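Justification of computing resources. Each target in the renewal requires a structure prediction run like the one illustrated here; the chain below, 141 residues long, is used simply to show the kind of job we budget for.
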Amino acid sequence: MTAVLALIHLHAFPDGTSDFKLVGVFSTQRKAAEAQAATVELPGFRESPSSFWIVPVEVDATRSPLDTGPDQPLGDLHLLFQTLDHPERGELVKILGAFLSEDQAQAALSNHPGIPAGAELEVTPVDLDERTWTEGFVTVK
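Resulting C-alpha cells:
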C-alpha cells in the first residue's frame, strides 16, 4: 500500500481542550516539512510551533501507521475523518483513511466499524501537496 503524509497542527489549551487543523496532505516527507516551515511563521501557528504532527495515512485503507510516504504524487484524495465532541477535551478529530475516489471514501464511511456513539464521519476532498492553511488564525476564548 502507498501512504501519504498528513500535516496537522494540534494545539492544546490550558483547560485541556485542543484545536485540530489539517495543514495539508503530502506525497513526501520533504514536501510535508517544507509546508510546516512555511506555516509555522503564520499567526496562531507560531504561538505553538511544537504542535505540528506529520501522520502517515495509508491510501485506500483505513488508518495504519507506515514509515515512509510514496515517491510520486497520487493526485486528488478524499480523507475520511471522525469527529467526536468529548465533554472534557472538546472536539476530537481522527483521520481514518485516504482514498483515491470519493466513491471509495463513501464506501469506507458506510462500512467503518467501531465508531463511538455521537461521533460524526465526514469525507473531505484534499489536493495532494497543497497547503489548506495559507493564512494564520486567531484563537478566541
